[in-house]
Design a protein that fits this description.
The chain has helices at residues 25-29, 56-65, 83-89, 104-113, 160-173, 190-196, 205-208, 213-224; strands at residues 12-15, 38-44, 69-75, 93-97, 117-122, 140-144, 178-182, 200-203. By secondary structure, it is α/β, with parallel strands linked by helices. Helix 5 links the parallel strand 6 and strand 7 (178-182). The structure holds D-xylitol-5-phosphate and zinc ion.
Length: 226
């Protein structure tokens, strides 16, 4: 790990390696600026979501090629069984889905007990109110702006109301958690998310599926004013 300070205040770009070329993860991640960006890792178990991606070995590989903040998004059932493995692999933040937790408070406390920052993600069909009682236990609320499971889907504008509700609740409570958006985030959708209150912008296709990923990442940062 580097001694460099990771960005913990928005706006932050979080390129998702789901859309990267895994045969050359090192050069793909060379576009990330560890002082400004996070690296987002999408873990899918073919149960909580229909897709299956990768586990701690690939997170550890990412850890070896970048000192950037590793933001691990667990789209899995029983996330509490995997926290230690992902933390040991190098995760700086571990986000679990509210819908996957029988006891969200216990799981979020277990994330923090590993030393990682704790994120709570909510699917498009889950109202913000369902997450509200755990706001003191989280460092990130990740508002899914597509149905989780696949990259390259279209942004759901109706989720902006949820981002606004989260921002209002944060102000009311005087809390410090960040608000993230994930799914269909690109230079055309990021400004509306920023205006609604988003701090972290996860983007797979809009970065790694572009002909010049470094330029695409710069365009994304410019779009949200980063
Ligand atoms: C979707 C994942 C996303 C995904 C976003 O289930 O959680 O993080 O990588 O991909 P894009 O930016 O292509 O929509
Ligand atoms: Zn994700």
């Amino acid at each position: 790990m580097s001694a460099l300070a990771h960005p913990l205040r928005g706006p932050i770009a979080a390129p998702s390696i789901l859309s990267a070329d895994f045969t050359r993860l090192g050069s793909e991640l060379a576009i990330v600026d560890p002082a400004r960006d996070w690296v987002h890792c999408d873990i899918m178990d073919s149960r909580f979501v229909p897709n299956l991606t990768f586990g701690p070995l690939v997170v550890a590989a990412a850890r070896r090629v970048t000192p950037a903040f590793l933001d691990v998004h667990l789209m899995v059932e029983r996330p509490e069984t995997m926290l230690r493995a992902f933390r040991d692999a190098g995760a700086d933040q571990i986000t679990v889905h509210l819908e996957a937790c029988w006891d969200p408070g216990a799981v979020l406390a277990a994330v923090r007990a590993t030393g990682a920052r704790a994120g709570l993600a909510i699917k498009p069909g889950t109202p913000f109110a369902a997450a509200e009682r755990w706001l003191d236990a989280i460092d990130l609320l990740l508002v899914m702006t597509v149905e989780p499971g696949f990259g390259g889907q279209s942004f759901m504008p109706a989720m902006l109301d949820k981002v606004r509700a989260a921002r209002e609740a944060r102000t009311r409570a005087g809390s410090a958690f960040l608000i993230g958006v994930d799914g269909g985030i690109a230079p055309d959708t990021a400004p509306g998310c920023r205006a609604a209150g988003a701090d972290a912008f996860v983007a797979g296709n809009a970065v790694f599926a572009q002909p010049d990923p470094a330029a695409a990442l710069a365009a994304l940062r410019a779009a949200f004013g980063g």
